[in-house]
Amino acid sequence: MANGLPDPPRGLLTADAARSLVDSVDAFLFDCDGVIWKGDKLIEGVPEAMELLRKLGKKLVFVTNNSRKSRRQYSKKFKSLGLEVTEEEIFTSSFAAAMFLKLNHFPPEKKVYVVGEDGILEELKLAGFECLGGPEDGNKNIKLEADFYFEHDISVGAVVVGLDQYFNYYKMQYARICISENPGCLFIATNRDPTGHMTSAQEWPGAGTMVAAVSCSVQKEPIVVGKPSSFLMDFLLKSFNLETSRMCMVGDRLDTDILFGQNTGCKTLLVLSGCTALPELLDASNKIHPDLYTNSVYDLVGLLQK
Amino acid sequence: MANGLPDPPRGLLTADAARSLVDSVDAFLFDCDGVIWKGDKLIEGVPEAMELLRKLGKKLVFVTNNSRKSRRQYSKKFKSLGLEVTEEEIFTSSFAAAMFLKLNHFPPEKKVYVVGEDGILEELKLAGFECLGGPEDGNKNIKLEADFYFEHDISVGAVVVGLDQYFNYYKMQYARICISENPGCLFIATNRDPTGHMTSAQEWPGAGTMVAAVSCSVQKEPIVVGKPSSFLMDFLLKSFNLETSRMCMVGDRLDTDILFGQNTGCKTLLVLSGCTALPELLDASNKIHPDLYTNSVYDLVGLLQK
């Protein structure tokens, strides 16, 4: 109360905090759903904030747990919303799944069963892997009767589970039987987000719900490659000459974005434009505290120009 | 080693143990999947064992977590397999869900959304409740695009989740939105079995997988009405003049059947004809120990006639 005014709440992004943040980092890592857009709708002020940060010489990187699209497809989505973002600036959990297999020398003669959408299939194929499942198994129905026998491919050596709007009992059984019966079969989750802003108006079940179902049926925990796992950061650091202590992770989820930032040594900024509301952040039960929080990335523009 | 022979393993059903068990109980509670049948195939020796126990004056009761059928439908299934079992002798998790709502004075003007199959719908309707969902929502597809808005019925006051071979993203979102947004909406699980012998040759994802998915999306735990919850036992005790200390629960799952028997004060007999194999029972990590175990209910016949 030095100036006679009450102190701002701890962590609230003020003009001073915004200037000090921008001075102390070289790169901003942005989550996408709930930060840049909701569904196909751009969040207000995003282009202005991106333009300002680029003008200040900051590197911008986009790190999303949403596995529905590949990096190429996300780059197109940015373009369709009027934003110029290259594939190299985008790190998706679908890409992370493919890179995890590559880094771990997944044998090329083995196949990958996918519970998920096109993004995962495209990244896996780009990385040279043969895939089964995905959207085309969305129409397969099970007839749970009498002596029905469920066939599966014994050359499946990994199951990748991500967000899947075509999720069904056929895929659940396919994933279960590969993980349980194919020796050494890997169980990889793109991420465990319980919900996400898949459309502009509403939240929807996230990849975490598909992962929970498969995990229950096999009584095993998956390897998680998306946020908050630090796996993606390794690629990011290989691609760019950056230090994590000079990065700021900007996201709308405490248990993925902010935790990812903290796990990897970044500064963290929570925006309230997505899944997390202020009461949740301030609730005594919340144990994940970002360095800073504000309503949306647009606030950076106003605060930095004060 | 009084007779010069090595002692049998602790808990193994011997002729002495079988006679002492039969003398000490008035009723046998049988799980069905993996004990009486696998899929639509009767397990060997079941008719003989049932006949013998009935001849010895024992009450037989069937307690199943499988919610796919109603009590009426199960009675028909027993008949089709050549076994005479009345509806009153059958306690299913679908019936338990309906009785839970009735006992808790669920308002008749409210509706129940069902993630599950016909058995749940039939029991709920018999108990006088109006239902939505079930198999007819199995064909509904989601188009996760742009400004799509998902409508739901705000008069849904309970969501019941059971085994559902028609599980899909539409039902996941319907359940999520009712539980999250309709004030006071109950979240009821028929059971949490991770797998079950839904066909004779293979295991399949159980109701626990659907429950895990919905539970993840709402970040809440359900009320469980099937085994191992003791809820079903209350009805059983009301229906029959029995004491739990003079009952034996016979089942193939440690974490549902045997735990249910133990939670309610019954004697417990594990059969190895279903989900549990001997190494799992004897593994140091297993914390649930039945009083007795044997290969299948057929063993009772041989052992009691020795």
TrEMBL record, chains A, B:
Q: Where in or outside the cell?
A: Plastid, Chloroplast
The question of whether Transmembrane helix is a record keyword is answered with no
- Reply yes or no: does the keyword Phosphoprotein apply: yes
* Keyword entries, A-Z: Acetylation, Chloroplast, Hydrolase, Magnesium, Metal-binding, Phosphoprotein, Photorespiration, Plastid, Transit peptide
Main localization of the protein described in the UniProt heading = plastid
Q: Which residues bind substrate?
A: 227
Q: What Pfam families does this protein's entry cite?
A: Hydrolase_6, Hydrolase_like
| Catalytic reaction equation(s) | 2-phosphoglycolate + H2O = glycolate + phosphate
InterPro entries (UniProt xref): HAD-like_sf, HAD-SF_hydro_IIA, HAD_sf, PGP_euk
Give the signal peptide as a residue range, or say none if absent.
none
Q: Name one GO biological process term.
A: photorespiration
Which GO terms label this protein's molecular function in UniProt?
Answer: phosphoglycolate phosphatase activity
Residues the record lists as binding Mg(2+) = 31, 33, 252
Q: Name one GO cellular component term.
A: chloroplast
Give its E.C. classification number.
3.1.3.18
Q: Which domain of life is it from?
A: Eukaryota
Which cofactors does this gene product need? Mg(2+)
Which residues are the active-site ones? Answer: 31 (nucleophile), 33 (proton donor)
Similarity-based family: Belongs to the HAD-like hydrolase superfamily. CbbY/CbbZ/Gph/YieH family.
The record's function comment reads: Photorespiratory enzyme that dephosphorylates the 2-phosphoglycolate produced by the RuBisCO oxygenation reaction.
Question: What protein does this entry describe?
Answer: Phosphoglycolate phosphatase
Which organism was this protein described from? Urochloa decumbens
Provide the organism lineage as a comma list.
Eukaryota, Viridiplantae, Streptophyta, Embryophyta, Tracheophyta
